[in-house]
Amino acid sequence: MDHPADFLLLEAEGGLRAELTGDWTSRSLGTAADRLRAELAARRPKVVDLTRVGRCDTSGAFAVVRAARGDGARPRLQARPETQRLLDLVSRPRPAEPARPPRGSLWTRFLVRLGRGLTDLARDGYETLAFNGRILAALGRVCANPKRFRWAPFVSLAERAGLDALPIVAVTSFFIGAVVGLLGAHMLTQFGAQVFTVELIGIAVLREFAIIITAVLLAGRSASSFAAELGSMKMNQEIDAMRVMGVDPFEALVVPRFMALLFTIPLLTFVAALAGLLGGLVVVWAVLGLSPDFFFQRILDNVGATHFWIGLSKSPVMAIVIAGIGCRQGMEVGGDVESLGRRVTSAVVHAIFSIIMIDAVFALVYMEANL
After folding, report:
1. Is the model more confident about 129 or about 12?
2. What is the rounded average pLDDT of the residues 41-50?
3. Which residue range forms the structural domain that includes residue 231?
4. Which of 185, 216, 240, 265 gives 20 to 30 Å between its CA and that of 224?
5. What is the rounded distance in angstroms from the CA atom of residue 67 to the CA atom of residue 362?
6. Which residue in 294, 285, 161 sits closest to 219, CA to CA?
7. Is there a single domain that holds both residue 323 and residue 193?
């Protein structure tokens, strides 16, 4: 129970004396501080006795020190050791240090930031190589002893990354194919070559858009999911507990995610290709009046299966990149929620950037190969 702060002025042999009672805290201070300040300024006691004070915090200690710092002679403060430490703390406040302007010229600061960026890039590259090495080691152990492979998480992850992503991949690819068909029909009709809209849809969807849409959607779904799951486990020290029990986290957590994406992305790419062709077919049929039989016949005669296999050949690389980036960012999560959010964001951004860059590399390679 809080006791209200109060004080008494007593005549003693050495002169007038102020005795403080009660709890001198922020909750029980009340008007005692203002009254004490007025009495000390008017009657000027020799001593302010705080030995009978129950509890005292920095608010109460500051009120006493401020009251004692009136005009004229200051009274002597008498208190118990713990209270005296508070009085000493508030009586000698530390002045705020002025903010120091950044040192050096603009060019110097630019070089410093550039050096830090290159250092971070080199460290990130080294950590990526170390992560890839541990993945290869875990895959080697699983291949040497297939019984070590964990089928339950593989099936669960394949369902989440495959079946659950099937509707959004199919719908997105359908509309992408429809948009390509609309653009082709609008542009090529001006030249009297609207029939070539079929080839445009077939090559664009089979070669590029099917795998790109699938990879980008899985980068947003699976890479972020992997980073969040592994990051939460690391924050809760579950990964450390697995190491203590002799379980390799890469073998138990990362390898099933790699294999799940390696299994599902080719299937999703196939579905995306069919949905994209269907979207283009609907537009060609509705806008240009070309029948589905004519559409599929031109696809078989002029597009062929080469472009489909070129698009499908990119899927294993995309799966490795998406799973690797998501798992690596999850394993790098620190002990706070801010680190988790930052790593999940980095997983999505890095995965999408890598997908676009890898697709550009594939395009250059196949162009040089005349494919």
Report:
1. 129
2. 81
3. 133-368
4. 240
5. 79
6. 161
7. yes
Q: Tell me how far apart the alpha carbons of residues 341 and 322 are, in angstroms, rounded to a whole number.
A: 18
Same domain, 182 and 284: yes
- Residue type at 143 in one-letter notation: C
CA distance 325 to 330: 8
Write the CB contacts of 175 (distance below 8 Å, at least 6 apart in sequence): 279
Query: CB under 8 Å to 218, separation ≥6 — which residues?
Result: 161, 165, 261, 265, 268, 318, 322
Question: Quick check: is 184 in a domain?
Answer: yes
CATH of the domain at 74: 3.30.750.24
User: Is residue 241 over pLDDT 80?
Assistant: yes
Q: Closest Cα to residue 269, out of 161, 111, 371? A: 161
Q: Higher model confidence: residue 60 or residue 93?
A: 60
Tokens representing 276?
């994209």
Beta bridge partners of 19: 8, 49
pLDDT digits (tens, 9 = 90+) for 102-148: 566 778 888 888 888 889 888 888 888 888 888 888 888 888 888 88
Structural domains counted in the chain: 2
Supply 345's token pair: 């964001």
In a domain, 63, yes or no: yes
Q: What is the pLDDT of residue 304?
A: 79
Q: Strands 15-24, 6-12: parallel, antiparallel or unpaired by DSSP? A: antiparallel
What would the mean pLDDT of 277-305 be, rounded to a whole number? 87
Residue 128 lies in a domain: no
State the DSSP string of 186-215: HHHHTTT-GGGHHHHHHHHIIIIIHHHHHH
- Which tokens in the block code for residue 49? 């006795």
Identify whether residues 306 and 359 lie together within a single domain: yes
Which pLDDT band, with edges at 50, 70 and 90, does 357 fall under?
very high
